[in-house]
């Protein structure tokens, strides 16, 4: 992946937006456990930031995914992890399948407003009884006349308390658990949707996360994305963007943590010298910087594969795995060098210690990535039938 | 009314500048470059004046090597209609720059020349003034507010005593100070559209200018490191310490 002048400009605009329009509010939003998604996304939509790799016909720029990775990377300048992730839900998790397989009607009424930042989107896959095991979801959609009637519950829904619609994975039929699913656009103001339960999380606190109950929710049949029964396949495809986005979006955050740690340990004195004067600290920080740079290279390589139209699942899963693990390693190692100050709630290292912890769980846990990688490499045998 | 805006490619203001070991300049390899922030402010002002209908065309101009095309693309993304690239790979000193810019201004038949009050690389703060002198045009430097009418401009500038307001006839040269405006975010569609806008390439020779070498940089050194401070307990001690250093 080559960083052209246009990549750089997109990166610069995104970074400037994050530093001016988001970062000054982060502490307030973290305290409130809520970010004004409609307000922020509207501004971003106005700048063209929400449809970089979406087609022109829906107001996007129609650029390849490498430009989206430049955007994701610049979002990493946010002083918390929650907001970049919530923005990523809008751009890379809830909308790729809709852009790829959605009807003109769905694109016009749901994708276009999401690209413009007029509607907030959510992705609803996980449930109380199934997260990483996507095929094990229990929510059902029965077709009654020209409608789907949906019942069940969805858990860990980012933007869930305020989103206008969700791209929801449901069981629309019986039989093979990989062939009985569909993705349906569900307006979250529909009758029977209860999303009052905001979840109290360890980190990513400014991003609202909801549990959504669906009780006989009636949705027009035309809200089906693509074909019935293809939902699992669409979702697996949609995960490629999600994984690359997630990997790219925390690179700058990790670099910030390392830089902040170098700055703090440089001025913090102990035993007659600064903490940074210890070669042990210098070497550790240097090693972490190297690891982050390697993650960047891996993310770019996976992006190159995706852009070239080749199967990027192996590399994207590797990047996702590495970013989740490295996020933990960087924040844990750095917090240690801060000592007591790092253990304080509002220190930047504690912020990311909490926030980046999610990355080994959300968007496919480390173990799911390892499963995919093992399978792709031919190491893994068949799983037990479930 | 046509405005010419010059933009210079400089090391990005966030980069921690490092002096080359042999003292021949600063390290520019692998370093991020961007548009001189003061020029960006000048460009923003031109775009605002165009949006108000005071200006009909904005032409961006830069002098330098191939990489400077990126600087012009940024200016085009801001809202310049087209650009002129004065190609010169070698060093360009303020007088040469001023001569080239004056030539472009004449060639374009522009009414207003907007540029930053200085570039953040050499902080020379000479180009705008020199262009005005070469063209024998009125100048208003360090503008913090610009109002444009058909044949004159009213420019407010911050001076030590307060605010000074100048009224100058057009055509004129105006240099932008930091508080003139806050440059907008570049919109992504504009970034992509800028790729298709025309850039005309000319050389110094085309403009009848010979690169001068009136200035010679003898050595570049990093500023001395701040030495450790001392804490004094009383005012008397402070006075004694200052006297001891010969400062009072």
Word description of this protein:
The complex is a heterodimer of chains A (386) and B (248). Chain A is an alpha+beta fold. In chain A, α8 (231-249) runs parallel beside α11 (313-338) and α10 runs antiparallel to α11. Chain A folds into 3 domains: 5-120, Butyryl-Coa Dehydrogenase, subunit A, domain 1 (Orthogonal Bundle); 122-227, Butyryl-CoA Dehydrogenase, subunit A, domain 2 (Beta Barrel), CATH 2.40.110; 250-376, Butyryl-CoA Dehydrogenase, subunit A, domain 3, CATH 1.20.140. Chain A has helices at residues 5-22, 26-32, 37-46, 65-75, 82-93, 96-101, 104-116, 231-249, 251-267, 279-307, 313-338, 348-355, 366-376, and strands at 121-124, 140-144, 147-158, 165-171, 181-187, 193-198, 209-220, 224-225, 269-270, 273-274. The mean pLDDT of chain A is 95. In chain A, 48% of the residues lie in helices and 15% in strands. Chain B has a single domain (2-244), classed as HUPs (Rossmann fold, 3-Layer(aba) Sandwich), CATH 3.40.50.620. In chain B, strands 9-8-7-10-6-1-4-5-11 form a 9-stranded mixed β-sheet, with helices on both faces. In chain B, strands 2-3 form a two-stranded antiparallel sheet. In chain B, α2 links the parallel β4 (57-64) and β5. Chain B is globular. Chain B starts with a strand and ends with a helix. The model of chain B has no long low-confidence stretch (mean pLDDT 94). At the A-B interface, α1 of A face α2 and α5 of B.
């Amino acid at each position: 992946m080559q960083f052209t002048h246009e990549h750089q400009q997109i990166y610069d605009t995104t970074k400037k937006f994050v530093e001016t329009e988001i970062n000054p509010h982060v502490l307030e939003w973290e305290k409130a456990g809520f970010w004004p998604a409609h307000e922020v996304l509207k501004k971003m939509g106005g700048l063209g930031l929400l449809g970089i790799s979406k087609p022109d016909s829906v107001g996007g720029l129609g650029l390849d995914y490498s430009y989206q990775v430049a955007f994701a990377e610049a979002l990493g300048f946010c002083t918390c992890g929650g907001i970049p992730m919530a923005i990523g839900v809008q751009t890379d998790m809830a909308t790729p399948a809709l852009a790829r397989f959605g009807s003109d009607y769905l694109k016009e009424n749901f994708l276009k407003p999401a690209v413009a930042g007029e509607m907030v989107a959510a992705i609803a896959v996980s449930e109380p009884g199934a997260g990483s095991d996507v095929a094990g979801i229990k929510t059902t959609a029965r077709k009654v006349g020209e409608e789907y009637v949906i019942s069940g519950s969805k858990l860990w829904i980012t933007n869930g308390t305020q989103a206008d619609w969700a791209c929801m994975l449901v069981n629309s039929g019986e039989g093979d658990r990989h062939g009985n699913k569909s993705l349906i656009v569900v307006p979250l103001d529909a009758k029977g949707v209860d999303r009052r339960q905001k979840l109290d999380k360890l980190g990513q606190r400014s991003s609202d996360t909801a549990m959504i109950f669906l009780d006989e929710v009636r949705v027009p049949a035309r809200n089906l994305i693509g074909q019935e029964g293809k939902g699992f396949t669409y979702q697996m495809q949609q995960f490629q963007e999600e994984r690359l986005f997630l990997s790219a979006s925390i690179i700058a955050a990790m670099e910030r943590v390392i830089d902040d740690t170098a700055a703090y340990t440089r001025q913090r004195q102990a035993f007659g010298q600064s903490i940074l004067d210890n070669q042990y600290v210098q070497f550790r920080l240097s090693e972490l910087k190297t690891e982050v740079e390697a993650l960047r290279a891996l993310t770019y390589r996976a992006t190159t594969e995706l852009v070239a139209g080749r199967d990027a699942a192996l590399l994207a899963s590797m990047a996702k795995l590495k970013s989740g693990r490295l996020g933990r390693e960087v924040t844990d190692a750095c917090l240690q060098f801060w000592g007591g100050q790092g253990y304080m709630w509002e220190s930047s290292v504690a912020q990311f210690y909490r926030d980046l912890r999610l990355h080994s769980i959300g968007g496919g846990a480390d173990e799911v990535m390892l499963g995919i990688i093992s399978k792709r490499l031919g190491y893994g045998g068949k799983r037990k039938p479930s | 009314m046509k405005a010419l805006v010059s933009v210079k490619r400089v090391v990005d203001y966030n980069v921690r500048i490092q002096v080359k070991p042999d003292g021949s300049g600063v390290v520019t390899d692998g370093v991020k470059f961007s548009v001189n922030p003061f020029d960006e402010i000048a460009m923003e002002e031109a775009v605002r004046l165009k949006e108000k209908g005071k200006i009909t065309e904005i032409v961006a101009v830069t002098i330098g090597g191939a990489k400077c095309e990126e600087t012009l693309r940024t200016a085009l993304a801001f809202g310049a209609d087209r650009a002129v690239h004065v190609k010169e790979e070698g060093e360009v000193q303020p007088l040469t720059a001023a001569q080239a810019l004056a030539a472009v201004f004449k060639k374009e038949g522009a009414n207003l020349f907007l540029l930053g009050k200085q570039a953040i690389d050499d902080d020379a703060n000479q180009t705008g003034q020199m262009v005005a002198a070469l063209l024998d045009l009125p100048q208003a430097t360090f503008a913090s507010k610009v109002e444009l009418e058909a044949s004159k401009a009213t420019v407010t500038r911050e001076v030590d005593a307060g605010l000074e307001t100048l009224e100058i006839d057009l055509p004129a040269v105006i240099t932008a100070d930091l508080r003139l405006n806050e440059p907008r975010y570049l919109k992504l569609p504009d970034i992509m559209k800028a790729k298709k806008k025309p850039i005309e390439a000319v050389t110094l020779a085309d403009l009848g200018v010979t690169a001068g070498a009136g200035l010679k940089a003898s050595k570049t050194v990093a500023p001395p490191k701040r030495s450790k401070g001392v804490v004094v307990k009383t005012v008397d001690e402070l006075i004694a310490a200052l006297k001891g250093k010969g400062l009072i």
